[in-house]
Design goal:
This protein has 131 residues and is mainly beta. Helices cover 5% and strands 33% of the residues. The longest helix is centred in the middle third of the chain and has 6 residues.
Length: 131
C-alpha cells in the first residue's frame, strides 16, 4: 500500500511478482480536482509483455462504469512512447481471456478492482489498510 495526505490525496495498492514479472495496481486520488481512479496491470516480461489499465473519474459527477475507459499497451510501446487507442468500456468491454485485459476485468483473480469512489484518505484513519 502507499498513500499521501496533503494538498493532493492519493491511496494505492500494488502487487508484483518479480519472478514472473507481473504486477497489478489500483489507485484513487483527488489530484485532478475530483475523484480519479485507475486499476490494471500485466506482464513486463519482454516479448510476452502486455499491460492494460482502466480509469474512471467524476468529470460528470459520476465515477460509474459508464464513464470508464481503458487502454492496452506492450512494454515496447510504452518505452517508445507509442500512443494507443483509448477504449470506452461501455462500448467495448474488456475480454478477460485476452492476456492483460484480465487485470481490468472485475471478478478475475488477477484484477485488484477499483479502490472505490473517493477512497483517497483525508486522515490517517481513512487509509484502507486501517480497516
Amino acid at each position: 500500500w502507499f498513500a499521501g495526505i496533503g494538498d493532493h490525496k492519493v491511496q494505492g495498492w500494488l502487487e508484483a511478482d518479480t519472478g514472473s514479472k507481473t504486477f497489478a495496481i489500483s489507485e484513487c486520488t483527488d489530484a485532478s480536482g475530483g475523484n480519479w481512479e485507475v486499476m490494471g496491470g500485466g506482464s513486463v516480461a519482454g516479448s510476452t509483455s502486455g499491460m492494460a489499465f482502466m480509469a474512471r473519474n467524476d468529470q460528470n459527477n459520476d465515477s460509474s462504469d459508464s464513464d470508464t475507459y481503458y487502454v492496452n499497451i506492450s512494454l515496447n510501446d510504452l518505452e517508445n512512447g507509442t500512443l494507443q487507442p483509448i477504449i470506452n468500456a461501455a462500448a467495448v468491454s474488456p475480454t478477460p481471456s485476452t492476456g492483460a485485459e484480465a487485470y481490468i476485468t472485475d471478478g478475475n483473480p488477477v484484477c485488484l478492482g477499483f479502490l472505490g469512489i473517493q477512497n483517497y484518505p483525508n486522515t490517517l484513519d481513512d487509509l484502507a489498510w486501517v480497516q
